[in-house]
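Q: Convert this sequence to structure tokens.
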Amino acid sequence: MIQALLLALSGSAAVPTSSPSVMALAVRAEQSAQVTELVSKGRALLVARKPVEALAAFSEADALGGGKLHTKQWVLRARLDLGQVDSVLADVERMEAAGETGAAIEYLYGMSFAARAQKSIAEGGNGGIIAMAYTDATNYLRSALKKEPKLYPDGWRTLAESAWNAQELPTAREAAETACALLPEDDAAQVMLGKVCFSQYSAAKGDETKAAEAATYLDSAKVAFERAIALCVAHKEFEWRAPESAARVELARVWAWKGDKAQSLQEYGKAYGLAPQAVDINEFRGQLDPEQFAQALEAAHSAYVAAYGTEGSGDALVLWWLGWASYATKKYARAEETFTQALAKWPDYVNSHYYIALARYFQQNYDGAVEMLHKHHSTNRADCVASLSANKDENIRILDYLISLMVPKGKNLEAAWLTEIECSLEPANSLYWNNLGLFRRDAGEQKNRSKKAEDKAEAKQLWEDAYTAYAKALELAPQDPNYLNDIAVMLHYYLNRDLEQALAWYKEAAVQAEKELARTDLSKELRDIRAIAKRDANNNMKKLEELLELRRKKAEKKEGEKPGESQG
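A:
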């Protein structure tokens, strides 16, 4: 190429190729072509959302171009997409102070102020500062693009965004259409055009005289968003799924305003599946009935699997919501399936245990429901209690029913698990604590029948735990004769300790039972319960007194015996 340039510049093949001036011109021409090629490459990389690669191309161009403004501006532009907003603004200010002026400086200021506004929004910044930044961006870019309408095609897209945020819709519409014409492969330009058209629709729809105009705006928004989606779909790389998701959310909103909920829920679902962490699920959950929401979540999961496959945990959140939607629509088998998958992929979604348990309950898999409730309570008691408390009365009825199924089957340990949950839900309910003591006691009896040492050790621990539960019940209702008798029984028959305390509790139980039975306002059911307490307390008291007397006599006999004395 250099040789051809030499010939062209000389007008004759006889010009010496060693001429310094001709060689310099040829080299500069070659470098200029390389610079142009590198800048074009970098700008294409920016559109493709590859700022790191773009910066490398621009930096190479800047080195060849001698660090002048016409190449330096692109280096600064790429740095903006890397989040270096403040340092870029500082560099632009230094360049301006050094005497640089014109469209390039205005372009850089405009792009920098727009980037600053975007950064402030992401950080939850002050609305007034954001509005001022967008206004400054609009003014700088409008001036720069008036001077150089074709040099900065991405500037038109940013002008559209800035003017849209500054509520200058005519300017935003013109800028967005120009950006789409100059950058036909830029999905972001199409999205911006769609947003502007949708805002124009919103402004016009309330005026009956502008109904046709409003409909045109809405149709234009739809077309722009569909084009953006098509551009994203054409790219198979993962980084294109998030912008595709964002475009689908916008299209879903358009379909909602067009009154087509079926199309809207499909787009919302696909958008959520492509970027679960980026889409506000409550936005579309509020627009759909439970059945439609479930359909949207099925679409979401299908979209996720199509884009990313089933490996990894990225779809755990989608699966959780799909489980929730399935449960809400009484598709209990599907709810169990998807919550189980979500929990396996993301164990921190602990309230999945709750929904799995209820899904099993409503499928009449009662043992499975008990197993999952126990796992939830033992894994994260606070979350289990919070989940059950959201519908506490109904859930306690479910727990009571499950307990009633466990006891006749001799599943006292399972009954104890469920009653422990009830105690967590209503810690001031003495009856739950007393029931917990009973089920632990009986579970201990079952374990104690085994000949295995580990089972007997477990039985002893269950009895200790039963005593603790009975003590809590008595603490809450210290004069209840049934509770007094029950806790005394634990010391007397199971733990075989503190027998004097047990005797005192038996005596107190008998006294309190007499007082209760003397009342005239007792229900028949409670009177029968108190009569049992009186009977059992007196019987147990007699047996314990006999045992204590026998032990006293044995102790006296042992004390009376002296070493060397005849035993008989």
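Confidence is low (pLDDT under 50) at residues 1-18.
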